[in-house]
Give the backbone structure.
Amino acid sequence: MQPLLGPDDPPPFSVHNLKGEAPLLLLCDHAAKAVPRSLGTLGVPEGELSRHIGWDIGGLEAAQELSTLLDAPLVASGYSRLVIDCNRWPGGEGSTPEVSDGTPVPGNRGLTKEQIDTRAQACFWPYHHEVDRQLDRMTVGGRKVCLLVVHSFTPEMKGFKRPWHVGVLWTDDPRLPHPLLAELRRDPTLVVGDNEPYSARASYEYTLTAHARPRALPHCSLEVRQDLMATPEAARSWGRRLAPAIRTAVAAALA
């Protein structure tokens, strides 16, 4: 089988502020909507790829702003979640969906294990190996760090209008999510979800399970509603708004 990525395709991940000194690694699992040229558009119109099914709208810009303001390294994925979702177990539920929020994805129909493995080798594992490299580097000598994954969510799903502006997703480790929830709720204008609009306890979640839990790192995901980050500047503005709460929460988690 020919390589999935060609010389004109973007890399499978990017790293920002590599020299950042904060005890925090930021991740963005769904940062891009790119599709390898060899896969065309997966049979999905560009307008659909630009929706939430293709990527986390505003997620990268918000994460980059946080990376700068908090002086924290950031690793971001390079391909659309429809090629292979970097926050799902490869080949598992939601990894390469044939239908996403009602939109058929013809290029994902009937994929063989070999085809899924090829996508994982090209677009999934390089991103996650880079996350491990950064964590190895940042924890040398037993240094304590936190892991925060930045996502965005669609304002409406299956007819339900989601009221939350932001949500903190976590499992059974309260060290980072509890102080982050407390700090966010200090702003009376914010509607803050606790494991809303999703729960990090879902079995299909990959990133935190694979990277934070084995290392016993304080961790959680932070979700921002996409209609609030519809432009790059709006997304950066949310990064600026959220940075103080994250800084305080990280300090509390590592105290």
Notes: Residues 13-254 form a domain with the Aminopeptidase fold (CATH 3.40.630.40).
